[in-house]
């Protein structure tokens, strides 16, 4: 294989291939951008190693998520529950982790991270208590 010596650009040449009737086929050179294959960079680093756009907030060195802001300063999606400003993701149906868990498990999140079972409304029929043998 013949490869150019450039760091960022190279040409890959296919090997000569013999076919059954003895005719040689040659493939045209394929030009590709190795830098693009490695991922985009900013300030010499990829996003996961500190590249990307920094937050617009003064003295913040975090990577901007959206609108030029990091999570801490309002970038990214927020929870769909009114009044909740926690970060949210599409995979959790635009809910923060607390509200997503509440919906999944039927528990209500209480301030301080504790959870308790939802109270049954008074107009709903409560299940009968199991009989005790004593």
The amount of beta strand, in percent, is 5-15%
Strand order of the largest sheet: 1-4
Largest sheet: 2 strands, antiparallel
Radius of gyration in whole Å, from Cα? 29 Å
List the total number of helices. 2
Number of strand segments: 6
Q: Helix proportion of residues, in percent?
A: 10-25%
Mean pLDDT: 68
**Which residues sit in consecutive blocks of at least 5 with pLDDT less than 50?**
1-19, 113-124
Helix and strand pattern: EEEEHHEE
Given the helix and strand composition, which structural class is it?
Answer: alpha+beta
Silhouette: elongated
Distance between the termini: 87 Å
What labels describe this entry?
134 residues, single chain, two-stranded antiparallel sheet
Characterise the protein shown here.
- This protein has 134 residues and is an alpha+beta fold.
- Among the domains are: 9-38, no CATH class; 77-110, no CATH class.
- 10% of the residues lie in helices and 13% in strands.
- It is built from two helices and six strands, in the order ββββααββ.
- The strands form three sheets. It has a two-stranded antiparallel sheet with strand order 1-4. A two-stranded antiparallel ribbon has the order 2-3. The chain has a two-stranded antiparallel sheet with strand order 5-6.
- The longest helix has 9 residues, at 97-105.
- The protein is elongated.
- Residues 1-19 and 113-124 have low confidence and may be disordered.
- This is WRKY19-like zinc finger domain-containing protein.
- Residues 103-134 are annotated as: Disordered.
- It comes from Phytophthora palmivora.
- Residues 116-125 have a biased composition (Acidic residues).
- Residues 52-75 form the WRKY19-like zinc finger domain.
